Amino acid sequence: MGKVKVLSGKEVCLILLAHGFEAVRQKGSHAIMQKQIGSSTITVPVPQHKELKAGTLTSIISQAQLSHSIFENQPMNIRAKVYCNGTNYYTDEIDISSLTITDVKDYCIQEDNIDYLNIFQDQHVVPDVWRYNIKVYKGKVTQLLPASLISYKLNGIDSNFRDRSASDVSIESKVILLVLESPHKSEYVHDEVAMTLKPKAPAQGKSPSDAGGGIKTHLHNVLKGINLTDGCYSLIICNPIPYMCSLGFLTGKKLNKNIRNNVWEAIWYLQDKNSHQFVIREDFVRRCKSYSPEYILNCCTTELSCFVNSILIRNSFNNLYQGYHPASNWNVGRRSVKRV
Structure pTM? Predict the structure, then answer.
């Protein structure tokens, strides 16, 4: 016997409705569900709580005379609608267990009777940013200054740091490109009433254990592992996939790596049916080429970094280095880098 899912009272009622029960009345905080079997009537009260306790759910299953397996953890698969350069593409099914259809339904769009997760559109793109100006002397970082001297509200970018658009970097400037993997929930403003996500900028967490704070606090030490020539550089931060693959605004405080990796890979492998191009990775390469980086530091998470390294090597980018993701890792001393 498998482990039952964590379900709300509403979700249990939906399951019972799908198996012949009807909602006959409300009694206090309980929905009263009934089902006729011959001359007998099965009555099951379901408390309308946000999460039902395991013992309560077990009792409901017994009263309803249904198979335990109906309420067990099953893979939750959904497709996604993804915007890229003026065109929408559609992924295959993605396993996003432990979420349920109730969790995601307000963020879906239905086309041809198929539900698509719809948080990967143009209005959800987290832009690449120019975060710091870096001065290097005798191979060491001697100065780290914000790219903008004015607040983000005046500069037009919603960021916890004084970012500018990556496109503002001068073509004569030498660029260090810091590659992450995809934005997380702190990179968005989530309006739970309007059911909207407004993008901010990459690496927004400000504490040293967050990506943004880790970069600010420890970047100078991380760059010691790169044989930087002396001079001035612009640091650009980008995500290969500029959408929230983690679905972190739905999964809660703890990052669900399985969901993030599954969504990330599904989007990474999106292919145009006519040109057969992998559209998201080609867009990433296009962005990287537009910055003409002197150095690339791939700090994508361990499980996904190989995909990023492979496409960068295939496109003949020079001075490619691999490091740890700045969130958590840099603050506990995992700051080594190696040349790829």
Answer: 0.81
